[in-house]
Every structure is written in structure tokens, then in C-alpha cells.
Amino acid sequence: MHALSVHGLTKRFPGVLALDSVDFGVAPGEVHALIGENGAGKSTLIKVLTGVHGPDEGEVRYGGERVEFATPLAAQRAGISTIYQEVNLVPLMSVARNLHLGREPRSRLGLIDFSRMHREATETLREYGVRADVRRPLGELGVGAQQMVALARAVSVEARVVIMDEPTSSLEPREVETLFGVIRRLREQGVAVVYVSHRLDELYAVCDAVTVLRDGRRVHTGPLAELERLRLVSLMLGREIGEVRAEGTTKFGGEHAAAAVEPVLRAEGLSVPHQLHGVSFEVRPGEVVGLGGLLGSGRTETVKAVSGALALSEGRVTVAGAPLRSGSPPAAIRAGVSLLPEDRKTEGIVPGLSVRENIALAVLPRLSRGGLVSEARIDALVETFMKRLRIKASSPRQKAGELSGGNQQKVLLARWLATEPKVLLLDEPTRGIDVGAKAEVQKLIDELADNGLGVLLISSDLEELIEGSDRVVVLRDGAVVGELSGDEVTEDRLMEAIAAAAEDPAGAESPADAESPADAESPADAEADPPAHAGADVPGDAGADVPGDAAQDGPRDGAPDTPQDAAPGTPRSAAQGTPPGSAPRTSQKSGQEPSARAAEEAPHG
Ligand SMILES: Nc1ncnc2c1ncn2[C@@H]1O[C@H](COP(=O)(O)OP(=O)(O)OP(=O)(O)O)[C@@H](O)[C@H]1O
Ligand SMILES: [Mg+2]
């Protein structure tokens, strides 16, 4: 019998049939993959299972009984623990508090026993490979470490069902292994697990069964091991295996003819105290240069230094022969440097604006002549990108905040690709994007490279880094420790280079080093979220007895800010910073500035 199931489930949003009489169930001790293209309905299904949305038709059964959870908190209390697509903890609260939210250990007087809470939190997190100071605000941790906290929290609750919506999108390979260990333990304990991911390798590594959704309909359910990978992709995309194979699904074209001319980007001796130590490399027009290394190796800092978000103490960046003023994102943008930031949730989508406006934000200066913007040109550009990236929206006028998680990512990607930059800095460009669209993104990047663009690529997906890069510069502790090019760019060689780095005892072995300072999201980011966010928007994440309650018990359906997945709520700060009518320059800046502030104020290093 299923631990949790839905029967004939239908869910509509204005203009969209998100789920169309879907049957789905997960048994105790089973790890069930739920897959489908961006916008197929995965997150919506999870939200109906967990009481974020009510069903329009059909029913949910839990332990065989018909249920209708009024709120995610009710589902959580009944034993259904969920990690939603976006980490939705409270960035300003301490790591320990986030972990224990609503279940804080108390003294006999009923006061929170902080020392015990800190001790327990430290121990729990160590099992997950996170060695952070648990008294610091959660927002200071990197995205991956935050995801591990969400995981630890979900699992530490006595749960009969654990649901994970893209839990690995921000995790490093090592963290993914930890996660898999946790999932296997849950399976042994007879917990039912629902697992959503776009990384097919992971599904095969950890899942027993699979259900494929396509356009809101269930198109396949069965054991996973028996299903060949290409067949799985063709089920997802609704195309024949031959077509899928011909398209080559997930790889960059590789091999760009890098012209033997002046590099488009030159980094010379980039240094920032405690973070970067004399990092030098070049990117020639037409080249994709990957940055390899572990968390905390300095990849994100390198990209931030190039984008002006991090001021240099020494060294310089040159774009197309002209030196860049250090520490100035606007100067970098003017010089033709575009950054697709890692943390798109706080640095990206403006949920209240239309898809069209979100895409056009950064290109308005180019499309306007004498202050007049040609609407027709914008329409044409938006249409091109929506088509190429297969952005699923009811129309270009739909609010970006209503799109599925992956489709929001595509909108951001479109925004930066459309600027036709000279240098494109991509921090995890295909995170959360389905295999079909990933192929499109990679093709687009290839084309841009062939037209002379220089690309600097960071990806925790090793395969993507290897397939995508003409050269890989390997970093450790903020310094370049190796470079692979041509035939050397293989998984083995890269693993070797990274492992050599990890073996050094002073190096990344100490996760404390690795987790906290490097990719720290910084208090600046945290502050950018209005504190109200904690209450009003932190929606369903695990039974927040404290601040989440208001949201969880609040109106659920149709409320614009309900679910966690979509950007709703989150980038409100961005929305405020970027009113529709604001000057395009400013708009573009707002995409990058938070990281600038983050960089300046964060206790990096
Ligand atoms: N609050 C909402 N308002 C309007 N439409 C919505 C809302 N939430 C989801 N949708 C629509 O429902 C459909 C399914 O979205 P859902 O988020 O379930 O997709 P998904 O399979 O999780 O995709 P992804 O892989 O991108 O996360 C999409 O067309 C989406 O635009
Ligand atoms: Mg989703």
C-alpha cells in the first residue's frame, strides 16, 4: 500500500492546467523519482500533497485514508517532511535556530536552552559535512550548506514521508554523496521518499521507481532500473528516441576556434586579502574557460572580482585590452561583462514584472534609440528567446513569479544572453533546468562563443564543466593550482587535479573553511530580504512553529505569495529596487549590485 498518494488529481491556475487527473503514489521504503520538463507540474503536485494548494479535483490519501491538509504545517505534523525547491529557512536567524525551529530544546523553566541547542546543532550538522558556527546567521552560509541545513531539518523530524524538490541543485559532488547516504538510510527505515531532480545520473543512483509528468499529465510510472536513459528523456520531452539522440541532449558543442588574438578577458594577479592570491588567466574570444575546484576554492570570488563585485587589493582585469576599474560593477557592465549570478533568488527575477519585462530589462539601452524603445524589437527579441529556451509561460505578459522554478531560471539566462556581452560569467548556468532546455542553453552558449564571446564557466556539474570548457583553470584556496586544456580536459584529470588540492591538509579538507567564508551569502543579502519575509513568505518549509506559522496557516490557494518554489516573495527587494519604469542601467545594476554589497560587507575569507 502507498504511504502517500493522489488519485485523479487536477489543479488549474488561471490559463494553465497544471495537473490533469494525475495518479501518483509512493510506498514505504521506496525512493520514487518524479521527473518532467520545466513546468511539467512536479512542484505543483508536491504542493498539493503537502497542503500548500488544495486540489480542484481528485483526492490525496495518506496511509490509505483520504486527507486534505489545510496547511504545510499540518502535513508536516502528520509526518510528511518536505524540502521545497527553494531553500526557505530564515536567513537572519542563527543556523542552530533554523535547524530546530519550533522544536527548540527547553530548560525546565521553558526557556530555550541555547547551549544545548548549539551543541546538538553542531553535532547534527557535522554528520552532514557542514562545519559552520551554528550561532551565526544562516544567511552567511553558502547556498549548498543552506540546502544541507534544510535537509538535516527535514530528516530530523520524525517523518513517514520525505519529499525533496531538487535537493541537489546547489550541492557539490561530496554533498550529494552525503545526501544519498541519508536517502538510503531513510529507505532502510521504511520511510517513503519522493525525489525530484533534473540530474539523471542521480536518479539512477538512488531511486527505485519513476513517474514522468508531461504537461501536467502522468505519462509513465514504473521501476527505474528497467528504463533506459534515452527512453526516459524521450518520455519527458515527448519526442522519439531518435530525435533525442540526434539532438545530443545535454552537451556543449565543445571545441571553439579560439582566435589567436588579444584575449577578451585578462586577469593578472588578482588578489583580495584572505580570498584571492594572485589569480591569473586569460580568456580569448570564442573560448569557454571553466573554473574548477571545490567549494571555497575561490571560484565565486574570482568571478566576483572580474564582475567588479569584489574590489582588488592587487592585480588587474582587462577587457578587450582596456583595464577595468576595480570594484565597480557598472564599469564592468559598460565594458561588456555580464554576470549570471549563482544566487538567482536574491539577485535575479523580478516576480511582479512580466516575462517580457524581465527579459528586456538589461537590453533596453541597446534597443532604445534617442530614448525611444521600439516595442516591436523587444517583442521580437523576447519571442526569440522564449522559443529557443522553451520558456513555458501562458504569454510574454505573464508574471515571471508565476512560472515554474526552471522557467524562471531560463528567463534570467535569456536576460543576460540577450545583452550580447563580450565576456559572460556563468555561475551554475543550468541549475534546475531540464535536459531539453539545457541542450538549448548549451547550444546558445556555443553559438555566442563562435561569435567571439569569451565565457567563464562555473559548474558543480562536473560533466557540464568538462563538456563545456575548452580549458579548465583549477583553483585551490584562492590560487591557481593547475590548468587543463584540449585532450586533458577529462573527468579523470580534473578529479585528479581537484583531489590533489583536497589532499593538502591545509586545503579544502577542512569543511569549515570550505563552507562558510567562501560562498557565504553574506548578511547583506540577508538584510535585503525584509524581515517580514520570515513570517509572511517563508512558507511551507518544515513546521516552523515560530515565524512560519502565519504563512502556513494563512490563505493558501491563489495567494500570490504562497509557495516556496517560485520566486514569490523572495526577490521583493529586487522588485523594489527595480520599478518597471526605472532607468535600464539601474535595472541591470540591480542584478549585480547585491553581490557587490555582499562582497564588501561579508566576512569573506
Ligand atoms: N502560482 C501559480 N500561478 C500561476 N501558474 C502557476 C503557479 N504555480 C505554477 N504555475 C504553473 O503551473 C505549471 C506547472 O508548474 P510547476 O512549478 O509545477 O512545474 P515543475 O514541474 O515543478 O517545473 P520546474 O522543473 O521548472 O521546477 C507551470 O505552467 C506554471 O507556470
Ligand atoms: Mg519545480
From TrEMBL:
The organism's place on the tree of life at top rank: Bacteria
Residues annotated as domain ABC transporter: 4-240, 259-502
Keyword annotations of the record: ATP-binding, Nucleotide-binding, Repeat, Transport
Residue ranges, compositional bias (Acidic residues): 516-528
Any GO molecular function: ATP binding
Compositionally biased tracts (Low complexity): 502-515, 529-553
Biased composition (Polar residues): 584-593
Parts of the chain that traverse the membrane: none
SUPFAM superfamilies assigned: P-loop containing nucleoside triphosphate hydrolases
Region described as Disordered: spans on this chain: 502-605
PANTHER family linked: CARBOHYDRATE TRANSPORT ATP-BINDING PROTEIN MG119-RELATED, GALACTOFURANOSE TRANSPORTER ATP-BINDING PROTEIN YTFR
Protein name: Sugar ABC transporter ATP-binding protein
Organism the protein comes from: Streptomyces axinellae
